[in-house]
Design a protein that fits this description.
The chain is built from 9 helices and 6 strands; from the N terminus they run αααβββαβββααααα. It is α/β, with parallel strands linked by helices. The protein has a 6-stranded mixed β-sheet, sandwiched between helices. The N and C termini lie far apart (57 Å).
């Protein structure tokens, strides 16, 4: 089969081929195995974590009326909060999403009447395949610094990390490298990554999770196709307005040329007359 004959994978085929790099699988594995999530956080952040408590309720729901299904892993303890997400593709909004997650953590952790000093240290972590910053680093970490003197930190205890799997060979920490290599589809090379592989396979045999994934994928495809159709209609309406302004064609001719309902073209014509 040539590259021109390739077709998109069905949801069932995607599920069969899924690895830990699949954000749905990653979420399920981490959400339902707090010990593994804790160890991964310790590996990525290179620090010991006393314990973690996962978000109280499962948040993956097939709710077609909502903006989307959140697959970020949220955990916290008495002094720290962590938001962790697998991001196989660059959505072109990860910095803004990191900002949103950090704000959500603060709202969740600070109760009414508490002092701001009671805010937890917050860590937002994205595990990416692509180098979204295109600077060749294996990890980009951020904290707020003074622009006039970058030696002065704001000390707001808010940190953001972007790990880049494609650049994992540049990482000196062997445990981080081993995990990112598994994200890229390579074989497990230590006990932790072998555990990740085992849990991934277990997740794929969970019939409830498989059903959730199928519904989620089909809804994403439906939304995408509707978005494409909406985009086509918007362009056709824009073209119809321009043709009506030129007054070279009748509404019926414009409707036929742009495959728009005649009623829609007449409505646009009336709107233009009102504006004049």
């Amino acid at each position: 089969m040539s590259q021109f004959d390739e077709r998109p994978l069905t949801p069932e085929e995607k599920w069969e081929k899924a690895t830990i790099a699949n954000n749905f699988i990653f979420y399920k594995v981490m959400r339902h195995n707090p010990d593994v999530c804790k160890e991964l956080l310790e590996i990525l952040l290179e620090m010991e974590i006393d314990h973690i408590e996962m978000r109280g309720e499962e948040t993956v729901e097939i709710d077609f009326g909502s903006k989307g299904i959140r697959l970020d892993v949220y955990a916290k303890n008495s002094s720290q909060a962590f938001n962790l997400e697998m991001q196989a593709a660059d959505s072109l909004e990860l910095p803004e999403r990191a900002r949103y997650y950090q704000g959500s953590i603060d709202v969740d952790c600070l109760k009414s009447g508490e002092k701001y000093k009671e805010l937890k240290d917050s860590y937002v972590i994205f595990i990416c395949i692509q180098d979204i910053f295109e600077k060749g680093l294996a990890c980009y970490s951020f904290e707020n610094l003074c622009r006039e003197d970058t030696n002065i930190p704001l000390n707001d205890r808010a940190f953001k990390y972007f790990f880049i799997a494609n650049n994992c060979d540049k990482i000196l920490n062997e445990k981080q490298k081993a995990f990112l290599q598994v994200v890229l589809g390579q074989k497990a090379s230590d006990n932790f990554t072998r555990r990740i592989e085992e849990l991934t396979e277990e997740a794929k045999h969970n019939t409830q999770w498989r059903r959730q994934y199928m519904e989620w994928e089909r809804q994403r495809t439906y939304d995408f196709e509707n978005g494409k159709e909406a985009g086509k209609e918007a362009k056709a309406i824009e073209a119809a307005i321009n043709l009506l302004k030129m007054k070279n064609l009748s509404p019926n001719e414009i409707a036929q040329a742009l495959d728009l309902p005649l009623e829609k073209v007449l409505e646009l014509q009336q709107q233009l007359l009102v504006k004049v």
